Amino acid sequence: MFALTDAQKTDVTNYVNAYRAKNQAPPLSWDDGIFTVSQAWANYLLELHVIQHSGTSAYGENLAFFQGYGSDPVALIKKAVDAWYSDIA
């Protein structure tokens, strides 16, 4: 499991909230508990070499998988956010 710095968490949160503001959606805040659960599920999927939803009703899930785009977690998170937002079209 990797960890994000406080500055990275703020960067990602601001990035998501910029998209949300375009649609008059209220801003989100970072939640370390949700991050921990999400990272554990991502690690499990990586171990199995699959991509699938967990089936939990506790949280909504958006999944993304990128290969060949480097290993900078913030850049990859932003790439996923961009991909999810493009679904609005």
Helix content: 40-55%
| Unreliable stretches covering 5 or more consecutive residues | none
Q: Element order, helices and strands?
A: HHH
Strand content: under 5%
Number of helices: 3
Mean pLDDT: 95
Strand tally: 0
Q: Separation of termini?
A: 33 Å
User: What overall geometry do the principal axes of the alpha carbons give?
Assistant: globular
- The radius of gyration is 13 Å
* Largest sheet composition: none
Structural class of the helix and strand makeup? mainly alpha
Give an overview in words.
By secondary structure, this protein is an all-alpha fold. Helices cover 54% and strands 0% of the residues. The protein is built from three helices and no strands. Helix 1 (6-22) runs parallel beside helix 3. The longest helix has 17 residues, at 6-22. The protein is globular, with a radius of gyration of 13 Å. The relative contact order is 0.15. The mean pLDDT is 95.
Topology:
Elements: H1 6-22, H2 32-48, H3 73-86
Concise synopsis of the structure shown:
This protein has 3 helices and no strands. With 89 residues, it is mainly α.
Which short descriptors sum up this protein?
89 residues, 3 helices, single chain, mainly alpha
